[in-house]
Write a structure and sequence with these properties.
The chain is globular. The mean pLDDT is 96. It has a domain of 217 residues: Rossmann fold (3-Layer(aba) Sandwich), CATH 3.40.50.1100. The strands form three sheets. The chain has a six-stranded mixed beta sheet, with helices on both faces. The protein has a four-stranded parallel beta sheet with strand order 8-7-6-9, sandwiched between helices. Strands 2-1-3 form a three-stranded antiparallel beta sheet. The protein is 40% helix and 15% strand. It is built from 15 helices and 13 strands. Helix 8 crosses helix 10 and helix 13 packs across helix 14. With 404 residues, the protein is an alpha/beta fold. Bound molecules: pyridoxal-5'-phosphate (PLP) and zinc ion. The site of pyridoxal-5'-phosphate (PLP) has 19 residues, from strand 10, helix 10 and helix 14. The site of pyridoxal-5'-phosphate has 19 residues, from strand 10, helix 10 and helix 14.
Length: 404
């Protein structure tokens, strides 16, 4: 018997498996590219899984859309321990009198490529193996490129990747080291996306459907399981730097899934941060908030020309806003803006206190946590998941600036 089926989120049509999903070009017959998995798993097994140590994403195999364990491609990704950072806790207490528990997740402790996208790439490569997909393509601002390059290489899948012209040289080198097919656009991320779509059409190569891709969402939603495993409950607040917003979409999916099983889990208040040099979601949110969230507010968002040097957070046209912003709204959270020119100084402070040098996107998350405190969005007693992400290993420029 199948472990799961996919269901189109627009028309509800059942798609039997990823095999059918891939065969139909990763979209429903209604044109929708968003589908969610429903599992025939025994959710009563969750407490037992939560009581055990997890080695990687596939600790949650029963709750992932992969039929056979022999197709697992893993490099020890996911399942990173949440770290209680005293400097953040003390800062909240000393500056704002707030007693909270910040729990930091570091992708640099994850296996694979140490990026935000390793769980998605691990599940992706496993599904490609299961369904005989031999070539995949994507446009990416950096981390999807890095992660899929490595995991596809592990699964013997050719990966053609379109990146914007400002891709960090470290990222480009990593991709090439996996001997994948790197195409550097003359233009920005939007141009790279167009080039990837044209390539996919012309060659019939499957392409990632972006932030709503069920591969990404189903893998990333295991964060909900990790909360239950590691802290026994959902955090009260979730902080992340946002570009597209896969994790908020995935957390929402995971929470709805468990509640549909009769469990009582609550979506954390989502605090999504953008740097002032590329902040279209914050702008859209501020407008909606100032107008009292009128009917259709989520469809009203601006495009900006990114002025940021953080290429992985450079989505100028936030096509995901209509999906992500309502999740933030229903969670009782907010978007916040941080200053890109404050990040190096802040990273020095983090380094002095923790020994860790986060990457620039990770610093947007940390700055977002501080901003949320300043705006009164974090309350006494809150457990705050600070989903920081990557270290600075693949951004030597930022690393040097922090150490200067
Ligand atoms: C550290 C970090 N934070 C945030 C993001 C943004 O993720 P998303 O595009 O899903 O919003 C990324 C993307 O790779 C990341 O690496
Ligand atoms: Zn449909």
């Amino acid at each position: 018997m199948a472990k799961y089926h996919l269901y189109c989120t627009s028309c509800g049509r059942e798609i039997e498996s990823f095999g059918q999903w891939f065969a139909e070009g990763q979209k429903c017959t209604c044109g929708c590219q968003r589908a969610e998995a429903r599992y025939f798993a025994d959710y009563a097994k969750l407490p037992e899984l939560c009581s055990r140590k997890a080695e990687n994403l596939f600790h949650w195999f029963d709750f992932l859309p992969l039929e056979h364990r022999e197709n697992i491609v893993t490099l020890g990704e996911g399942a990173v321990p949440f770290e209680e950072w005293k400097c953040l806790k003390d800062y909240a207490k000393q500056k704002y009198g707030i007693d909270c528990t910040p729990l930091v997740s570091r992708s640099d402790l994850s296996g694979g490529t140490g990026t935000f996208k390793d769980p998605a790439a691990a599940l992706g490569a496993s599904l490609f193996k299961e369904w005989g997909v031999k070539h995949f393509c994507a446009a990416s601002t950096g981390n999807t490129a890095t992660a899929f390059s490595r995991y596809c290489a592990e699964a013997d899948v050719k990966f053609t990747i379109f990146v914007p012209c400002d891709v960090s040289p470290d990222t480009a080198l990593t991709i090439m080291s996996h001997r994948q097919d790197l195409r550097i656009s003359q233009g920005n991320y939007a141009d790279a996306k167009k080039e990837a779509a044209a390539f996919s059409m012309q060659t019939g190569t499957l392409m990632t459907a972006g932030n709503i891709d069920p591969i990404r969402v189903e893998s990333k939603r295991t964060l909900v399981f990790e909360y239950l495993r590691q802290i026994g409950r959902m955090p009260d607040v979730y902080v992340q730097a946002v570009s597209g917003g896969t994790a908020p979409i995935a957390l929402d999916k995971g929470v709805r899934e468990l509640n549909a099983q009769g469990m009582d889990v609550r979506l954390p208040r989502m605090i999504l941060a953008q740097q002032d040099t590329c902040d279209p979601m914050v702008l859209g949110w501020e407008k909606a908030r100032s107008e009292g969230f009128p009917e259709g507010w989520e469809k009203d968002f601006p495009s900006v020309t990114p002025r940021t040097s953080i290429s992985i957070l450079s989505t100028g046209t936030p096509g995901m806003f209509p999906i992500v912003a309502p999740i933030v709204h229903k969670s009782g959270g907010s978007f916040v803006r941080v200053k890109e020119d404050s990040l190096v100084e802040l990273a020095r402070w983090i380094h002095e206190n923790t020994g860790v040098i986060p990457g620039p996107a990770a610093m947007v998350c940390i700055a977002g946590f501080l901003k949320a405190l300043e705006e009164g969005l974090i309350h006494n007693g809150d457990v705050v998941s600070v989903n920081m992400g990557e270290g600075s290993e693949r951004n030597t420029g930022f690393r040097k600036a922090v150490l200067a």
